[in-house]
Amino acid sequence: MKRELINRAIEAREKAYAPYSHFKVGAAVLGEDGNIYTGCNIENASYGMTVCAERVAIFNMVSSGCRKFKALAVVGGGKEDSAPCLACRQVMTEFCESFDTPVYCNGPEDVIFEHTMREICPYPFVSFIPNEDYND
């Protein structure tokens, strides 16, 4: 599943709208319903209105009626690990199946880094579970 999510994120990256940064990003999430939802970054001249690929993929999932994801992959075009930004990490905590949910990020030379939600967002703002459950 890891490779399939990465491949779907690569496909989504091709649809990115990035005329300002020229940094295309794609993401794919495996919904708890078994479907894969994708997204790409969509920039705007007013940079604050730009939306990241991870959030687009999650919002596509939610707008399709699925509320939790089992895994997420993000693919950028840089030479470093393409980790989600902090805004995306917060949104991801809202919709991840558990804090052990895997997050796959591409790196240079086709390396895939694997993290958990707990690792990439150790102190999320959460109102639906006690914080002590998160850090067990």
Briefly note the structural class of the backbone.
Answer: alpha+beta
Characterize the main sheet.
5 strands, mixed
Helix content: 25-40%
Coarse shape: globular
Give me the number of helical elements. 5
CATH architecture grouping: 3-Layer(aba) Sandwich
CATH class: Alpha Beta
Order of helix and strand elements from N to C terminus: HEEHEHEEHH
Total number of beta strands: 5
Distance linking N and C termini:
27 Å
Instruction: Give me the CATH superfamily.
Output: Cytidine Deaminase, domain 2
- The low-pLDDT segments are 130-136
Provide the residue-averaged pLDDT: 90
Rg estimate, integer Å: 14 Å
Beta-strand share of residues: 15-25%
Output the CATH topology: Cytidine Deaminase, domain 2
Indicate how many domains the architecture comprises.
1
Strand order of the largest sheet: 2-1-3-4-5
Can you put this structure into words, describing what you see?
A hairpin with a 5-residue loop joins strand 4 and strand 5. The radius of gyration is 14 Å and the shape is globular. It starts with a helix and ends with a helix. The protein is an alpha+beta fold. It has one domain: Cytidine Deaminase, domain 2 (3-Layer(aba) Sandwich). A 5-stranded mixed beta sheet has the order 2-1-3-4-5.
What attributes does this structure have?
21% strand; disordered C terminus; alpha+beta; 5-stranded mixed β-sheet; globular; Cytidine Deaminase, domain 2; 136 residues; 5 strands
